[in-house]
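Whether sequence alone determines local backbone shape is best considered at the level of individual chains. We regard such an encoding as a compact summary of how the chain folds. The sequence in question and its structure tokens are set out directly beneath this paragraph.
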Amino acid sequence: MRRRALLAAVPGLVLAGAATATPANLDFRILRGGASVGTHRVRFREEAGLLEAVSDVQIEVKLMSFTVFRYAHRTAELWRGDRLVSLSSRLEKNGSTTACEARAEGEALLLRGPEGAQRLPGQAAPLTWWRRATLRPGVPLIDPRKALLVDPELRISRAPQGGTRVVLVGGEGADVLYDAAGTWVGFATTGEDGSAVRYERA
């Protein structure tokens, strides 16, 4: 029911379209300084030419028996081919909450968040990592945590066994790895406290 409600929330959307293979679900353990601190899961569903991707990040860092950092971020995306149809994102971080929404309208993408409304090019896409095609020159990138456009330098190179490595330079930075089929298989970044954070397939 939730999925159907999400599909119905896009006015005027034509659901007809060629069916494509639904990506396999993704599960990662999040490691900080080598210790497990959380999980990042992505769940996919396809219906009538629309692909739904729901990303869920849960992080809890403890010092002794006390929680010193808590982070929960859920992002739901609807894609029709290479076009983002809608997005909703909710971030809870140490008791503070931010949210953003996006919706395709004509040739544009309307983005609403803490900084107000923005009208973006229709090819704009969120940095939710699972979609390899998003990380290429010419695609306006959205940080869904803040509902803002970001413009990192992208360094794309070959990875072992025919995969692809994409390094984002600027801001927090990120090192993202995809296999030969374009499936997301690795991720590394720097935490807010300067600690090394990396993902490991669960």
About this structure: The longest strand covers residues 66-80.
